[in-house]
Write a structure and sequence with these properties.
Blueprint lengths: L8 H9 L9 H25 L6 H26 L1 H17 L46 H48 L10 H50 L5 H42 L7 H14 L6 E2 L3 E2 L2 H21 L1
Antiparallel strand pairs: 1-2
Helix pairs in contact: 2-3, 3-6, 4-6, 5-6, 5-7, 6-7, 6-8, 6-9, 7-8, 7-9
C-alpha cells in the first residue's frame, strides 16, 4: 500500500503546506517561507514589546509577551519536526506496512482540527495610530494609509490562521498515530485470545506464537518512533504553555477593576482555554497509550496460555513481562504524558501566578 493512502487527504495537504510530508514538491521553498515569515514576525513582535515595555500597563505587557511566546513555540515545533523528518518517514512506512498486511482489521484513523485563536487588541499606548492590528508589531513602515492598513490586516489574519492550522495539524497527526497504534494493539490482543481457546486444550502453532512476538516488537518500535518524534515537541509545548498560562493568569487578575475588564478577561480566557486544550490533547494521547499498553499484558494473562505446551507458555510469559514496561510519550525524556501530569501542570501554573503577583 502506498504511503499516500494511509493518512487523511486533508491532513496530508496540511503536512505538504508546512514542508513535512516526504517527497512532496516545493518542500525546500515551503520551509524557507515558514522560517523567514516566522522569524520576521517574531522580530517585529518582540521589538514592539521592548518599545512599549515601560509605557504600557504590566498586565498588557504580559498579554503581548504570552502572544509572542505562542508564536515562538510554533517556530520551534516546526523546526523540531523538520529535524525528525527521518523518524516521521519511518513511521509512515511502518503504517503503510500495517495497512497492507492487516487491511481487514477493525481500527480506524481519525483527524481532528482545533485550536483557533485570533487576538484583537487596541493599541492605546501608541501615539502614532489607534488602528488595531491582529498581531501587535513594530512594523518598519506606516500602515495607517488606506489600503496599506487593510493589506496588513489581511496578511496578519492569514498568518494567524496558518499558524493555527499548523498546531491543529500536529495535534491531529499525533492523535492519528496513537489511534493507529491502538488499533495494532487491539489486533495483537485478539490474536492472544484466539491462539489459546477457552476451555480447550491448546496445541498452539509455534509459528503463530512467533508471529505474535514479532507483532509485539513492531508495536514497541512504532511507539518508540512516536516518542522520538513528539518528545521534544512536548517539552517545548509544556515549558512554553506553563509560562504562557502564568502570564495569562496574571493578566486576568490584574485586569480586574480596569475599564475594559470584561473584554480583557473574555479574550484572555479564550486564549487560556486554547492553550490548555493543546496540552490536554498531548496528555490524553499519552494516557490512551498507557492504557492500551496495559491491555497487552491483561490479554496475555487472561488467555489460556497455561494450557499450551511448555515452550509456548514460556514465550507468552516473556511477552507478559515485557508488557509490564508501559508504552509512553515523555516530556523531553523527563516524565510521562498523562492526565495526572496535565493536572499537575495546571496546579504549578497557579502557584507561579501567585509568585508573579508578589513580585508586581
Amino acid at each position: 500500500m502506498k504511503v499516500e493512502n494511509i493518512i487523511s487527504r486533508i491532513l496530508k495537504i496540511c503536512l505538504q503546506i508546512f514542508g513535512i510530508w516526504p517527497d512532496s514538491s516545493c518542500v525546500l521553498l515551503s520551509r524557507i517561507f515558514w522560517i523567514i515569515s516566522l522569524i520576521i514576525e517574531q522580530i517585529f513582535q518582540y521589538q514592539y514589546i521592548i518599545i512599549h515595555f515601560y509605557s504600557t500597563e504590566l498586565f498588557e505587557v504580559m498579554s503581548m509577551l504570552s502572544e509572542a511566546m505562542s508564536y515562538s513555540t510554533v517556530l520551534m515545533k516546526l523546526l523540531i519536526f523538520w529535524y525528525k523528518q527521518r523518524t516521521f518517514n519511518s513511521i509512515l512506512m511502518m503504517m503503510a506496512n500495517d495497512w497492507e498486511k492487516y487491511s481487514n482489521s477493525e481500527f480506524n484513523m481519525f483527524t481532528m482540527t482545533c485550536h483557533v485563536v485570533v487576538k484583537h487588541t487596541d493599541d492605546k499606548a501608541s501615539n502614532i495610530s489607534t488602528r488595531p492590528l491582529v498581531i501587535n508589531m513594530n512594523l518598519p513602515f506606516d500602515f495607517n494609509r488606506t489600503y496599506v492598513y487593510e493589506l496588513t490586516i489581511i496578511i496578519q489574519f492569514i498568518h494567524v490562521m496558518l499558524c493555527t492550522l499548523l498546531l491543529g495539524t500536529l495535534n491531529s497527526l499525533l492523535i492519528s498515530l496513537i489511534l493507529h497504534l491502538g488499533g495494532q494493539i487491539d489486533i495483537l490482543c485478539g490474536w492472544l485470545t484466539e491462539i489459546f481457546p477457552m476451555n480447550k486444550k491448546s496445541n498452539s502453532n509455534f509459528f503463530m506464537v512467533k508471529k505474535i512476538i514479532k507483532k509485539h516488537q513492531q508495536i514497541i518500535a512504532f511507539s518508540e518512533h512516536i516518542e522520538d518524534l513528539f518528545s521534544n515537541i512536548a517539552l517545548v509545548l509544556f515549558v512554553s504553555d506553563t509560562l504562557i498560562i502564568c502570564c495569562l493568569g496574571f493578566v486576568i487578575i490584574m485586569s480586574v477593576g480596569t475599564p475594559d475588564a470584561v473584554k480583557i478577561i473574555i479574550r484572555t480566557l479564550l486564549f487560556y482555554f486554547a492553550m490548555n486544550m493543546e496540552a490536554f490533547v498531548f496528555c490524553f494521547a499519552g494516557e490512551y497509550l498507557n492504557s492500551k499498553s496495559n491491555s497487552i499484558g491483561n490479554a496475555a494473562y487472561n488467555s489460556f496460555w497455561y494450557e499450551s505446551n511448555s515452550k509456548n507458555s514460556r514465550i507468552i510469559l516473556l511477552l507478559q513481562m515485557r508488557s509490564q514496561k508501559q508504552l509512553a510519550i515523555t516530556i523531553g525524556k523527563i516524565m510521562n504524558l498523562s492526565l495526572e501530569r496535565f493536572s499537575s501542570i495546571i496546579k504549578a501554573s497557579a502557584s507561579y501566578i501567585s509568585v508573579l503577583l508578589a513580585m508586581s
